[in-house]
Write the structure tokens for this entry.
Amino acid sequence: MTLPLEDDARPPYVQAADALRMEIEAGRYKPGERLPSARALQEQYGLASSTVQNALRLLKDEGYIYAVQGRGSYVRTSTPEENPIRRAGREAFQRYKREADERREAEGKANGGSAKPSREPGEAGRALEAGGETVEVSAADLATLTELVTATQTQVMQLRQKIEELEERVERAEQAAR
């Protein structure tokens, strides 16, 4: 199955990652199961080696797969939806959005029922798109979100390092057991 590269404006590695993600979500590749080799995926999708590697890296970053050096890529036993970092981020955003809505409503009441909340002088507003919905945020809210994202990114990097260390330990243990 080659990808519709000409019919899709997205980069080829994103298209390949989407195709693999759909196959994982559909259950074609089960948790713990090894994915086809990069070479087999190259042939299957009609892509270059680096493009396939980028697609696999994207799926790894999203939490769908993990790689074992010299052995291949495997489907994770927990889906990204079950991933605690992703869940915490989603919950933090929902909490933030709820609090922002409550603030907006309170400001509206304080302004005599005005639908638009007042802004402090010099406080720039921005519109962010999240999950298909536009959310208006102040500069202070944006700074808070930036701090949350930065903290989450730091946690993700730390967890990735721990995961890589554990994967290396498992690989060494498997080699020692042979």
User: Anything to note?
Assistant: The chain is about 55% helix and 10% strand. The longest strand covers residues 125-130. The chain has a mean pLDDT of 77. The beta strands are 65-68, 72-75, 125-130, 133-138.
